[in-house]
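Hi everyone, sorry if this is the wrong subforum. Our group has a chain we'd like a structural model of before ordering constructs, and none of us has done structure prediction before. Sequence below.
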Amino acid sequence: MEKLKKIMLPIMSAVVVVSTLISSQASAATTTFKDVQANHWAKSAIESAVSKGYFKGYGNGLFKPNASVTRAEFASLISRVAKDMTLPEDAQTDSFKDLKGHWSKAEVDRAVTLGFINTKDYPNGFKPSTPITREEMAKWLSSGLVASSAEYKTAFAETKGTLLPVKESFKPGIAQDKIPYLALAMGTNLMNGFPDGSFGMDETTTRAESSAILLRLENVLKKEAVTFDDLNELRMMGTKKTNLELVSSLTTGKTSIADISGKRKTFRNGSGSLVFHRLIGINTSEPKKKDSIYTSLFMTEFGMNKNKNSGVLPVFKEITIYPKKQGFDIGDYKNGVIDMTGGMTITNKLNQKYGYEVIPNLEPAKFFAKNKNGVKVWVVENLKIKDFYGQFNMDDGSYAVISNNN
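Answer:
Right subforum, don't worry. Here is the predicted structure as tokens:
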């Protein structure tokens, strides 16, 4: 028995030592900061980003979560996240003249080489201490994805004509060459809009927000573009001008909404005409189908609950109406079309939040009189999914159909 005790004591001592080491390592990995409260929304992301070596804290146990991030800092951060990406032999070594002797030079050069940063965007120098805007951030992130994969490059091309679910899409509008960068950032969930419906293109980003974005980037770089459902929807909206097949059992079959997009439809009563642009479905009753990235743009919680399990698909159509008749009214539009180009006015007031136009219920004739040269509006129609069939017929003979896929 005494001999057994002598054998067990060293083993137990070793266990205690190992346990102590593991405990110490765990404590070291879980970094805490005095200015990051336990209930801070980004606490976990901050601690994870720091433990991975992406971010560093300041002295005296501070992280400064609300401080803005500069160009130099964010370039360094994404370079660290993309540490496993291989540099080509012709790697950049002198990207910007104003970085000579700057602490971030090597990591900025690496970010340029990997395709995150385009030197042509900064002809007057990088200006490393400038706080980076969210638009810049989206462009850097998306450019890096495009450089990393042919599929992301394809996704980038396919989102050029998409609609982004943010208020800037409507007022003041987003330049077409900027849309794909925002689409890739939003479609992969690297960046999202704010509660007020905006993307905040000119806003800066805090260290806390950047911590969360970095962890997402780490994950996105490991995945193919096709694995992101929201990006697939944005791609479909860009190429087919509808998301119908993703969010419902309805389909356009061998036709396409893209075939009628931009085409004119003259009203049969001669009161005017319209040009059709796109159609967006919001899934309210098919659990196996995708929840649309555009849901918050068009549907309130009340509307979702009202349509739940109803077998109805609300579809929102973007059209430009050109009044011709003197005193043109909403009835002239409704009676002027008998196919799928028709629709009802949207009354949930979400247009006020996002800035898109709808036909007003009150004094619509005055609305059209003010817009006698044409006005782009959204209208809605509720489609019964089961056994549905509908058709669009345009003046030039182009057409599209919608029918049930089952």
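For your construct planning: Strands lie at 250-251, 264-266, 272-281, 312-323, 375-384, 389-393, 399-404. Confidence is low (pLDDT under 50) at residues 1-29.
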